[in-house]
Predict the structure.
Amino acid sequence: MKRLPLEGVRVLDLTMMWAGPYATKMLGEMGAEVIKIESPRAWDNIRTLIPREDQVDDPWNSAHYFAEYNHEKKSVTLDLATDAGRAVFLRLVAHSDVVIENYRADVMDNLGLTTDVLVAAKQDLIVVSMAGFGKVGADRHNVGYGPIIEMMSGLMSLSGYDPDTPQKTGVSYGDPVAGLAAVGAIALALMKRRRSGEGTVVDLSQLEVSSKMAGIAFAALAGTGEVPRATGNRHQRWAPQGCYPARGEDQWIVASCTTDDEWAACARLIGRGDLADLPLAERRARHDELDEAIAAWSRPVDARVAVDQLQAVGVPAGRVLDMRTIKDDPQLYARGFWVQVPNEKMHPYRKSGVVWRLLEANPTITRHAPYLGAHNHEVLTAVAGLSGDEIAELEAAGVIADTLGEVSFG
Amino acid sequence: VTTHDGDGVDPPLPLDGVRVVELGGGVPAGYCTHLLAGYGADVVQVGDPGLTADEERYLSRGKRRVEATGAELARLLDQASVVVDGRCPSGGDDVGAPPARDLFAQRPHLVVTAITPFGLDGPHAAHKATNIVSFANGGIMALTGEPDRPPLQNGGDQAFMLGGLQGFAATTVALVGAAVQGTGDLIDISLQECGASMLELYGSSWEYDSVFIERTGNMLRAEWGVYPVADGWAGVCCLGRQLPALLDLIGVEREPRFLDPVQRRDHNEELLVHVLQFMVEQTKDELLALGPAHKLPIGAVRTAADLVEHGPLIERGFFDDDGAGGRLPGRPFPGLGWAPLAPPATVPIDVVLARWSATVGGPA
């Protein structure tokens, strides 16, 4: 059996919310030892984002949102605002390969943990920061979460039912996108270090990663001088394409006719063979009418049946899977995408599995999201080299902890 | 030299010497190999990648293109370190190479990254898909758009671009493993699963708490939305800890009904009125100045045309010159170098084979 590609790589993970944690869960899935570091006074907000109605003593250990994106990690608490916390952190740095953080641009410097300080602790260290707008530059003081990044990057201007009303993506899209880029940056830096022995400092801007994802619009602007606009659910080149109702409340399918033949097959399927010979130009001109014709056919039909029938005649089509139906999608089920990860503080449920299916290395999820500070003793002993007495002193001083005081949600 | 093949760039790039064959074309594979090329890989496309002029302008720079079949294609694959395979199991875009699984079985030194709509197996593996189909099947589309209107795709072919980004990150990670362990791997990436892994808290809310969250349009909550402003659209996204500063900014008393997360649900409409009144009177520039001043997440909707003239991005060296005076997004992150990417050029297969035969490639 081939080993996971990042086995032997140790990552100190100072990230919070979604962008950074998405990156580090991918690193963990690929075999890296990810040590998630939170302060007992400033923990990952995702642990306590959603108000809880159940009565448990430690709600921060069983939040489903946190559990979704923090598996394959160890948890260490360290108050980096204290001298003792910083000293221990730098001892960890000395024995690690990567430090990644997605704080606001000024936070690490304010803590006294500048890049120079980190690299002094480990000469070939890989440091990746993920501030929303980068750590350097005139925009560095901007504050942003995923939707802000989506607005500012040009992506949102391309989305909308009409060209004049931008529409945000239903998730904080800028976050995981930035996380993926950070994973690429770390892998490239590991390649570079293997060749040269040198570390790397990456000042990743979440804004730039999202703008990069809108790059085809920039190319259109460069080529034509025209600013690309939103096209709703339609396509710029082929027709018809759209989102059509199916039987049931808020059930929908999508379909694209990318060629004359696909349209002809679609037209015959929906009982409108009289329209089968329409050329593309006329399909575009009569798009509203064709949308109505497809919707009239699809509205009383079960979404799965409609998609199967369209696919059977060669038309690209799919169901708009919502949060319920996606859990029972036959394709995801057959591929074992949803997995149960035992966690004694949570009732059994299915979470998303590994996206990068490496045939030989065969990554799986083996470790649930960590309880706060669950690995303090293990990591501080084995990696930082602290004694039991030293760890007890840190506990007594509140530098480390495995519980939180009064918690406010939201 | 129309592409970067490891010569003449100082300092060396992280993927110098890595040889990539792109099969099947398309945007997902094209974006993946664009990023690999930018960081130094020598990328060779086999056949026409089937891109539009805009896609080609953005994605094919820094690559060479060859026509190759039979023994020549086999030699090319023998000498590659990576194959990025954009061929769909639904067929129609075959270039004469073995399927991804066979390709890897025959050449285990390769990192083979297959990016397909549904993955290499399963009952829908042979389904045909476009960007909107992949976006719909990944779950994010059901969350996007207004609640009283159909679900909406987001712009810029994001299901495809996301697949390319996933492919890039996965390929670079696998290259690390290949360098250490001496053998490659087959990476099976499904565009559907790329989306399904990014359902934020919405997927697990239903699965764990049986709380079904529908799409909420441009406003999740009053303090988390996109709104019309004096000269366009802008937005604010505040967590609970940032609410006091937002209330101060818009001139609303810090009262428990707005600050307490449970009470806030019942007073969302009231707070929304205040937010809307404030936003509509400001310009985008005014709002953007208020964000850092109050440490509040405030943004404005900008277009590609706005961004190519945005000084801070230019000063950070974000853009590539497209060779005709235009600016295209360049390196996704600084710190590791980025190759100059010339327009794509078709070259005889012999040229590539001679070069690859004469030098040692691979990631190690």
